[in-house]
Amino acid sequence: MEATGLDIEALKSGPLGGDAQIGAMIAESRLDALIFFINPLTAMPHHVDVKSLLRLGIHYNTVLATNEATATLLVRGFNQSD
Q1: CATH number for region 14-80
Q2: What φ, ψ does residue 61 adopt, rounded to 5°?
Q3: Of the listed 19, 32, 49, 82, which one is catalytic?
C-alpha cells in the first residue's frame, strides 16, 4: 500500500477461503481491480480455483492483471487518474 498509494485489502490464503472471498467480491462488483500473479512454470494444485477466479473476472469484466508487466501498467494508470 505504501509503494502504490492504493487502498489494498488483504484476504485469507486460498486454502483458507481466500479464493472464495475474491470470487464473491468479483460477483458483487466490490473490486476496482484484481492483481493475481500466476507462475506458469510450476504445477498448481489449486488450478481449478485459479481458473474459476479468472472465469469470474472475465465474465464480470473485472480489471485483471496476472503478471508483473500488466500489474505495473495497471497501478500506474490508477495513480495517474487520482
Answers
A1: 3.40.50.1380
A2: 55, 45
A3: 19
DSSP β-ladder status, 34-35 and 64-65: parallel
User: How is the chain split into domains, by residue range?
Assistant: 14-80
Which helix H or strand E contains 74, and what residues bound it?
helix 68-80
Secondary structure class of 44 (helix, strand, coil): coil
Catalytic status, residue 49: no
Tens-digit pLDDT profile for residues 52-68: 999 999 999 999 999 99
Specify the 3-state DSSP secondary structure of 65.
strand
Q: How far is CA 18 from CA 11, 14, 54, in A?
A: 6, 4, 14
pTM: 0.76
